[in-house]
Structure formats: C-alpha cells, structure tokens
Write a structure and sequence with these properties.
The complex is a heterodimer. Chain A is globular, with a radius of gyration of 13 Å. In chain A, the strands form 2 sheets. In chain A, strands 2, 4, 5, 6, 9, 10 and 11 form a 7-stranded mixed β-sheet that branches. In chain A, strands 1-3-8-7 form a 4-stranded antiparallel β-sheet, with no helix packed on it. Chain A has no helices and 11 strands. Chain A has one domain (3-98): Immunoglobulin-like (Sandwich), CATH 2.60.40. Helix content of chain A is 0%, strand content 56%. Chain B has strands at 3-5, 10-14, 19-21, 24-26, 33-39, 46-52, 59-61, 64-69, 74-79, 88-95, 104-105, 109-114. In chain B, the strands form 3 sheets. In chain B, strands 2, 5, 6, 10, 11 and 12 form a 6-stranded mixed β-sheet that branches. Chain B has a 4-stranded antiparallel β-sheet with strand order 3-9-8-7, with no helix packed on it. Chain B has a two-stranded antiparallel sheet with strand order 1-4. In chain B, a hairpin with an 8-residue loop joins strand 10 and strand 11 (104-105). Classes of the chains: A mainly beta, B mainly beta. At the A-B interface, strand 5, strand 9 and strand 10 of A face strand 5 and strand 6 of B.
C-alpha cells in the first residue's frame, strides 16, 4: 500500500531563517506531487505541483520554492522566512494526471515563524 | 470560472442530529469529478468520496450520504445521526480536466458535534 511521509511534524523558526520541508511517498511510482498551505482557520492554498522529476509548477508568487530531486521526494524551501509563511503545510500525491485521481495527503507540518 | 463554494463556514449541532453540508461548484467542463475530504483536528485530510459528473445516483456509506444534483451544480453531504467523532473541517473539491492535475478546493465547513 502507499504511504506519504512529511517531516518535521512541527517547526518553529525565526524570521529570515531558511526552511526545508520534506515529503516522500512510498509504494507507488511516478506520482503527481503537491504542496499546499493552510493558514489558521482557512482553506487550502495550492503552492506547487509536480508531474515528474525536476518538473515544478508554481501557483502563487511567493517566498517559497519547491524541488523534486527524486521520483518520490518533494521538497519545499525558503531562503528567508517571513512571518506570513506561518501555517500548516500539507503534501499530497495522486496517481497521475487524470481528473479522476483523488489526492492523498500527508500528516502535515505546522510551521510557526516568530 | 472554476470554483467551489461552501457557504457554511461553521455548523454546530447536538449529537444524533442529522446535518447537511452544502457544496456548490462552477466549471466550464462537461466532464469532471467531485470529492469530499474530512480534516479532523489532527490535520491530515482524509479522502471520503469521489463522484463522476456522469453519475447522478446518490451514494450512501453508513451514516454518510451524498446528493449530487448536476442541474443545480451541487454536491451536498449529509451525516445522519451525527457523532462527536464527526467533528472536523469538511472540504468539497472539484477536478475538471481543464485544470490539468489540480483539484480546486472549497474553503471548508467546520462541523462541531456537541455531546
């Protein structure tokens, strides 16, 4: 069966510090991968998605970047965090590009920028 | 426009009551898929159901049921005999082929079940 992992689970970082969040998927190959952010009490905002190694699509201009160095690894990064980067970050995967493919979500990383 | 609207921001009911969560969507695609996800306090989103736009048959799974009405672009979710464990944020989502690999989420409805 497929599983998706995210780490760390929680993170407290000062403003201006770098960020690296990691997401890995097991039990499948060539998944579509997604990064979402959820501000407190708000809905999901799609940040990035990837249909293959090295292929990243950005949805919202921002302080963050994403990379996919391996088929089942998706990394969210920032060189300098802002207060507004605080939130709950969710990674998700789907089986392919079809509209019928539901997304499966990881446990999330709760980021607080102070 | 491709959009999902969940007009109910928060709902609170007493345990054992029935509750319906509304979802209205907009899409220019004739073929599309609709989803419901549950986000319990732990944070992880849990997939509940997928519905094909060609299939308007209502679906029931235990205490959960879904009413898809293509004529009104709605995909409502009903919980019968609600329980405290149903307390969560529920998201409705749309996946039209024209949006490539992306799912469009509504803003969510926070459901609180009081004992």
């Amino acid at each position: 069966s497929q599983t998706i992992h995210q780490w760390p689970a929680t993170l407290v970082q000062p403003v201006g510090s770098p960020l690296s969040l990691e997401c890995t998927v097991e039990g499948t190959s060539n998944p579509n991968l997604y990064w979402y952010r959820q501000a407190a009490g708000r809905g999901l905002q799609l940040l990035f998605y990837s249909v293959g190694i090295g292929q990243i699509s950005s949805e919202v201009p921002q302080n963050l970047s994403a990379s996919r160095p391996q088929d089942r690894q998706f990394i969210l990064s920032s060189k300098k965090l802002l207060l507004s980067d605080s939130g709950f970050y969710l990674c998700a995967w789907s089986k392919g590009a079809g509209a019928y493919n539901e997304q499966f979500f990881g446990p999330g990383t709760r980021l607080t920028v102070l | 426009a491709q959009k999902v609207t969940q007009a109910q921001t928060e709902i609170s009911v007493v345990e054992k009551e029935d509750v319906t969560l509304d979802c209205v969507y907009e899409t220019r695609d004739t073929t599309y898929y609709l989803f419901w996800y549950k986000q319990p306090p732990s944070g992880e989103l849990v997939f509940l159901i997928r519905r094909n736009s060609f299939d308007e048959q209502n679906e029931i799974s235990g205490r959960y049921s879904w009413n898809f009405q293509k004529s009104t672009s709605s995909f409502n979710f009903t919980i019968t005999a609600s329980q405290v464990v149903d307390s969560a944020v529920y998201f409705c989502a749309l996946s039209p082929p024209s949006s490539a690999s992306k799912i469009i989420f509504g803003s969510g409805t926070r459901l609180s079940i009081r004992p």
